[in-house]
C-alpha cells in the first residue's frame, strides 16, 4: 500500500510499448525525427492550439524552470502560491535557470491563489522601483499541490489580473491531466482559452516514464527556447524516446483515462477517510487526499506497512491527530485502496 | 546507410527489457530505490572504485556541465581541446552551469591535447592574476571528437601535469566504452588509475536510450552534487528508469561488447576508404572514421542515400575533395557497411 | 528638510580631502597600492581582527551579494528577516551573484530575527532533502531595516544557533556604525567576538561617497573572493579611491562620531514625535525613526516640504494615520530637526 | 617613470572639484538627482544622440559586461578579437553577467578584427544549429588593446557585416576618447553614425576617478537595463558622484583635451623608441606604444626604475629582445617621457 506519490509508480504499458515501437533504425538525432514531429503535432491538436510551440523534456522541474526562465528576466518577480512546487520542491531551479529571478510567494486557501491577493501583490510589485525587481510573471499549479483544482473560471480570473498587468501566466501542470479530468473541461478550456500563456503539461505522473511537454501558445514567446533547453542539457540526442512517451499518452485519450482512474481511486480514499470519522483538510478534487486522522490510526497504518507522507507535519490543530497526504496513480491497486479504507474503518 | 552519428540509432534490446523489468510496483521516487542502488554498486565494481560517488543523468551535456560546475567556480578557467564537445557542441552549458567559467581552448593534432601545450597553457593561466580568472580544471575527451583514443600513458601524462598544478582532471567519456574497447585496458586503467578525477561515462551512444553516469572518484569532490543535479532538473522522479538502462549495459560486459562491435564496423569502413584510394584524416581508433574522398564520390554516395556529416567543412587542402565523418553504432547494419565500401570501391 | 535616507546626503569633508590627498602620482592599479594596503590594515585594527581578509567595494548591494555568494552555493538556503534589505531592496542581487540561492524569509518584531524562529526554520530546512535546497547561511542586519539594534547578546544567540547548524553568519552592516554607536560596544564585540563570520561594514551611509568593506574574519572563507569581486566588476582600477574613503572614516574614530551624530539627531526627532502626541512603531535605537502621526499632520509636513518615505504604506491600524520613516545623517541640519519637531508640535 | 597603465594615475583636478561641488545638501538617491540628469543630457549632446539611453557605472568591466548581457542571451555567441579586454582581462565577467554567453575569439593584426574574418565567423556560427549557441553580438574595442585605432570606415565596415547578420555592435570604449582624438572625427562619427549600437564610453582612463558611461543609441535596447545595473550592485546610492565625474570630463571638451595630451605623450615615446633604433610592433595611434627593444636596454630601464609591462611576453622573434607596452595618461610628466627617451637614446 504505497500512497506516497504518483511518481512512485512505473509507466503505463502503452508507454513502454511505444519506446520499443520507435526503437528500430537510424533517425536524425536531437529531435529532427518523425516521432517527435508527430508527437508535437498530436499535442497541438489535443490542445486545439495549432500555433503553439511545444517541446518535450524529461522532468517537471526542467519544464517549469525552463518555461519560467523563458518568460522572466534575471531581475524578474514571479508570483506564486507559497506552497507551489517551484518554491518548495525544485531546489532553486527557477532562480538558477533564470539567473536570479525571485519567487514572490502568496498565501491562499487550499493551494490556490485568489484574485484579490494576486492583484494586491502585483500592485505592490509595481511600486517597488528598482529595489524589488520587476514584475515578470505569475505561476499557478493545476491541480494544485493540495490536490485541489482551479475551475475554468478561476483560472480565467487570475489570468485576467495577470494580463491586465502585462504579465504572462505560467501553469505548472505536473498533474494537469488530473485537473482536466476533474473539471470535465477540455485541455484548451483549462489553458489557453482562459489565458494560460505557458503550460507545463505533465506526463510523468500521468503514466509516462519521464516526459513532460512545455507549451508556449504564442510562438513569439518561444523565441530562443530551444537554445535554453540545449544549454541546460535537456535536449535528448535520441529525442524520439521522449516524444514516443507523450505520443502514447495522447493516443486514444489515454492521458485522460489514466487521470480519471487516478482521481477515482483518490475519491474512494477520501470516502474511506470520511466514513472512518477522519476529516479532509481540503476538498478532494484530483488524485490527492489530505486527511486528518487520529495518531493511533496512523500508527496502525504504519504497522500495516502503508506508505504516505505526513503533510503538513506537524498537523495543525492538535497533538493527537496527524495530517497525511495520500496520492494515487492510475495503477494504484484497487485492493490497496480497499484495504486501506478497511483499516481506517476498523478505527 | 546512416553514418551520421551513433546516437542516430536506438537502444539495445536488453536496455528496453530492463525498463520493463523494473516497471512494476511502487518504489520510492528520486533515486531512493533498489534499482538505482544496485546500478550504482555495479558501476563502482566495473570501475574498481568502491569509494566513488556515481550518479545517473539522461544526457551527455548534462553530465559534462554538471561535473564541470562541480569542480570549477564561476571564475574558473577550464582547459580543453579546441574541438572538445564541451566547447563546440553544448551551447554554452559549461558556462551556464558554472555561472561563468571560461573554456580555454588549446590546439592539438587529432583531437588530443599534448602535455607540452597543456603545461604551457596552465603556466600562462597561473600568471593571469585576477584578469584572466583562476585555473580550475582540465577536461579531455576519450575517445576524442576525432575518434582517436588517448592511451593509458597519454592520459597519465596529462593527469600528471594537471595534478602538478593542483587541478582536477575531467574526462568526457561520451564514448568512453569505445576508448576502453580500443585500448584493451580496463575502465579503471583508463580513468582513476591514471588520474582522472571526474568521469562522464556515456551510456547513450553505447546503446542506452538516454543515460550517462557522472563519477567522482574522490567522494569529497561530490559534495553537494546531488543538489546541483536537482536544481538543474536532472533528477528523475522515476529515477529507476535511468539506472536500469545503465545496469543493463553493465551486465555481462554488454557495454564493452557493444563498443567493440561499433569499433569493428568503423574499422571496416576505414579499410573501405583506404582500399578505394581515399585517405584518413586521422588514424581510425574507435567508432568514427574521418575520411577524405573525391567530391564526385561524395556526390555518388549522396545519390545513393548515404547519410553522414561533412567534417570539417570545407575540407582542408583541396576543392575537389570532401572530408567526411562516418560514425558507427553497435547495430549499424553490416550490410550497410559493406554496401558503402562497395560504393567507394566503384570510385 | 530631507529625512528620506542617510544616503541622500553627501560625503564628509574628510572623505573628499582624502581623495585629493591620494590623487598625485602613479601607483599600481587594482588595489596593489599603499593606500589600499594601509586602509585594510587600519580596518583590521579597528576590528581587532588581524587575520581578517578585508576588501572594499562601492555599494552595499555589491558587498552583501558578494559576501553571500561567497558563503552560499547556488542551491543554498539563506535565512533572513522578511524585511531584510537583501530581500526587499537589492533587486535579486543575492540570487544573481550566487546563481540561484534562495532567501528564506522569516518574521520577527521590529526587524529582528528571534532565536526561536531561526532555530525552527533551520530545522525545517534540514528536513527538506534535495527539494528545498541546502541550508547555507544566516543573514542579519544591524542596525536593522527598522532602525532597531541587536544587542551583543542577541547577535550571540543567533550566532550560536547558526553555528550549531554548521552555518556561517553574515551581517549586513550598511549601518553597522550606527549600531555600534548605539550599543556602546566595540566593533569586535558586535561582530566576530559574538560569532559574525562575514561582515559588510558600511561606509556610504556613514559619510563616504561610495565605499563599503567586506570582511571575512576567517581567511579561509575568503578563498577566491577576489575573483568574484573582479568578475562582477567591483574591482576599481584606481582602487586607492575606494580605500581612501574608508581610511578617512577609520581615522580618529570619525566613523563612530558620525554615527553618534546621526543617532542623536534621530533621537531628537523621536522625542519630537512623542512630544507631539505621535507614536513610535518600534523603539528608536539608531538613526531611523518609524513614527505614526495623524494624516493631517502628514499633509502639513508635505506642504512644508518635508521629505520622507511612508513606511509601511498603508499604515497598519487606521485610515486617519500614516506611518513614516525618518532617517538622519551625520549632517542632517540641526535646524531641520528642530523645525520639523516644531511643525509636529503645532499639531 | 610609470608607463604601466593610464589607470595608474589619479583623477583630473576638475573631476575632484566636481565631487566637492555637488557634495552639499540632500538629493534623492539612486540617480534621481539633478547632477545625474544633467550629466546624462550633456553626454547625449556630446554624442549628438538625443534618443540615447545613458547610464553611469564605476568600472569598465561592469560597463562592458552589463552592456553585453543586455544584448546577448545566456546562449549567445559574442564575437570579439582574441586580445579583447572582455576576453583576456575581465575574469569571465561577460559570461557571468549573461549567465553563460560564449566569447568567440578571432585573430586579427594589431588588435583589429577584419571584415573577412568576422564575416566568416558569423557565417560559421549561423551554421551551428543548437550546438554552438546562437549568434548574438559583435564586440570591438576602440582604441584597441594594442593601442591602434579603427578608422570611421573600418568601424562602418564591421558594423555593416554585423547588422547584415541581424546582430548589434558593441564598442568597448575604455579608451574611446583616445580613439576619437586620434582620428579627429566626432564621437558620433566614431559610434552610432557608423553603426555602433552599444557604447561603453570610458571615463576612468580619461581622467575620472572611477566612472564610465554605458550608452544604448536605440532606447529599445536599454529595456530593463536599470534592473540589471541594480541587480549587479552597480547603482550607487549617491549616484551624483558618478555623474559629476563624467560631467566634468564632458565640460569644455576636457575629455578630448586629456585624450589628446595622452596621445601626444605616447607619440613622443614612440619617436624615442624609433630614434633609439628600437621598433614598434604595431603603429602608435593612441596612448599606448608597443615597442621592441634589446634586452640590455630593458635591463637598464629597469635599473632606472622605469615601470611598464612586458607585452607580449615572451617577445616574439628573438631572445635578445623584449616587447614592452608603454601607456601614457594626460598627466604622465613630460620630463618622464623625455628622461625615458634619453635613456633609450643612450642605448
From TrEMBL, chains A, B, C, D:
Annotated Aromatic amino acid beta-eliminating lyase/threonine aldolase domain residues: 3-292
InterPro entries named among the record's database cross-references: ArAA_b-elim_lyase/Thr_aldolase, PyrdxlP-dep_Trfase, PyrdxlP-dep_Trfase_major, PyrdxlP-dep_Trfase_small
Protein keywords: Pyridoxal phosphate
Keyword Manganese appears in the UniProt entry: no
Cofactors demanded by this protein: pyridoxal 5'-phosphate
Source taxon at top rank: Bacteria
PANTHER family: L-THREONINE ALDOLASE-RELATED, LOW SPECIFICITY L-THREONINE ALDOLASE
Subunit structure: Homotetramer.
Family membership noted in the UniProt record: Belongs to the threonine aldolase family.
Name the UniProt record assigns to this protein: Low specificity L-threonine aldolase
Amino acid at each position: 500500500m504505497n500512497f506516497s506519490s504518483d511518481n512512485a509508480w512505473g509507466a503505463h504499458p502503452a508507454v513502454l510499448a511505444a519506446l520499443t515501437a520507435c526503437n528500430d533504425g537510424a533517425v536524425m538525432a536531437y529531435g529532427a525525427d518523425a516521432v517527435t514531429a508527430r508527437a508535437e503535432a498530436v499535442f497541438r491538436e489535443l490542445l486545439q492550439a495549432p500555433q503553439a510551440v511545444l517541446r518535450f523534456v524529461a522532468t517537471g522541474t526542467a519544464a517549469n524552470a525552463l518555461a519560467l526562465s523563458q518568460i522572466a528576466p534575471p531581475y524578474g518577480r514571479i508570483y506564486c502560491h507559497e506552497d507551489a512546487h517551484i518554491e518548495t520542491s525544485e531546489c532553486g531551479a527557477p532562480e538558477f535557470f533564470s539567473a536570479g529571478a525571485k519567487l514572490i510567494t502568496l498565501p491562499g486557501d487550499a493551494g490556490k491563489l485568489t484574485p484579490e491577493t494576486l492583484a494586491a501583490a502585483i500592485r505592490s510589485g509595481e511600486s517597488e522601483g528598482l529595489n524589488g525587481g520587476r514584475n515578470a510573471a505569475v505561476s499557478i499549479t493545476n491541480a494544485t499541490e493540495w490536490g485541489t483544482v482551479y475551475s475554468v473560471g478561476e483560472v480565467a480570473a487570475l489570468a485576467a489580473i495577470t494580463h491586465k498587468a502585462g504579465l504572462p501566466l505560467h501553469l505548472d501542470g505536473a498533474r494537469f491531466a488530473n485537473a482536466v479530468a476533474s473539471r470535465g473541461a477540455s485541455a484548451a478550456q483549462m489553458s489557453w482559452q482562459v489565458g494560460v500563456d505557458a503550460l507545463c503539461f505533465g506526463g510523468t505522473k500521468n503514466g509516462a516514464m519521464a516526459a513532460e511537454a512545455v507549451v508556449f501558445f504564442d510562438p513569439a514567446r518561444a523565441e530562443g527556447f530551444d537554445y535554453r533547453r540545449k544549454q541546460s542539457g535537456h535536449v535528448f540526442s535520441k529525442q524520439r524516446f521522449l516524444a514516443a512517451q507523450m505520443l502514447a499518452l495522447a493516443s486514444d485519450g489515454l492521458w485522460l483515462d489514466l487521470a480519471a482512474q487516478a482521481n477515482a481511486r483518490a475519491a474512494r480514499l477520501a470516502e474511506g477517510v470520511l466514513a472512518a470519522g477522519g476529516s479532509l483538510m481540503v476538498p478532494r478534487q484530483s488524485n490527492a487526499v489530505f486527511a486528518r486522522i487520529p495518531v493511533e490510526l496512523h500508527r496502525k497504518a504504519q504497522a500495516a506497512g502503508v506508505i504516505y507522507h505526513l503533510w503538513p507535519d506537524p498537523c495543525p490543530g492538535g497533538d493527537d491527530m496527524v495530517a497525511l497526504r495520500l496520492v494515487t496513480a492510475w495503477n494504484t491497486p484497487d485492493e490497496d485502496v480497499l484495504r486501506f479504507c478497511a483499516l481506517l474503518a476498523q478505527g
